[in-house]
């Protein structure tokens, strides 16, 4: 997959997540388990790490944060999606959003801006 294809895959993942009740979106957590058994909450990076297609490309979780090659966290997402750190922070870091609460649609808008 190219970098653009990976970002397009993430768009599909997040669009699907909007339709589901099982996985909650929470921009401030890579991946957590809520008080309900087997229900997870994740940010866009967490959703990416849970996807089998992106896992096959090498994206993984290391102690509940993204890992790719020798990078973890935002560095892993930058390397995996071929983005600058600034672009990664703009998409994945809750501190770079000046709305509240941050929704999947807010994140999708930012992903589409970089494609």
What would you say this structure looks like, in words?
With 115 residues, the chain is of the alpha+beta class. It has one domain (3-114). It is built from six helices and six strands; from the N terminus they run H-E-E-E-H-H-E-E-E-H-H-H. It has helices spanning 3-19, 44-50, 52-56, 74-81, 85-92, 104-114, and strands at 24-25, 31-33, 40-42, 60-62, 65-68, 71-72. A three-stranded mixed β-sheet has the order 1-3-2. Strands 4-5-6 form a three-stranded antiparallel β-sheet. Strand 2 (31-33) and strand 3 (40-42) form a beta hairpin.
List the helices and strands and how they pair.
Elements: H1 3-19, E1 24-25, E2 31-33, E3 40-42, H2 44-50, H3 52-56, E4 60-62, E5 65-68, E6 71-72, H4 74-81, H5 85-92, H6 104-114
Parallel strand pairs: 1-3
Antiparallel strand pairs: 2-3, 4-5, 5-6
Summary, kept brief:
By secondary structure, this protein is an alpha+beta fold.
Q: List segments where confidence is low: pLDDT < 50 over at least 5 consecutive residues.
A: none
Distance between the termini: 14 Å
Helix content: 40-55%
For the largest beta-sheet, the strand count, sense and barrel status come to:
3 strands, mixed
Q: What is the global morphology?
A: globular
Please provide the ordered H/E string of secondary-structure elements. Answer: HEEEHHEEEHHH
Number of strands: 6
Number of domains: 1
User: Would you tell me the overall average pLDDT?
Assistant: 89
Placed side by side, the strands forming the largest sheet appear as 1-3-2
Class computed from helices, strands and strand pairing? alpha+beta
Radius of gyration: 13 Å
How much beta, percentage-wise? 5-15%
Please give the count of helices: 6
């Amino acid at each position: 997959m190219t970098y653009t294809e990976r970002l397009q895959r993430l768009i599909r993942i997040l669009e699907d997540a909007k339709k589901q009740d099982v996985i909650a979106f929470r921009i401030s957590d890579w991946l957590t388990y809520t008080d309900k058994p087997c229900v997870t909450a994740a940010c866009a990076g967490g959703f990416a790490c849970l996807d089998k297609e992106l896992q096959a490309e090498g994206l993984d979780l290391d102690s509940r944060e993204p890992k790719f090659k020798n990078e973890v966290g935002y560095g892993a997402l930058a390397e995996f999606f071929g983005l600058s750190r600034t672009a990664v922070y703009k998409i994945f870091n809750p501190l770079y959003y000046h709305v509240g609460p941050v929704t999947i649609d807010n994140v999708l808008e930012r992903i589409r801006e970089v494609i």
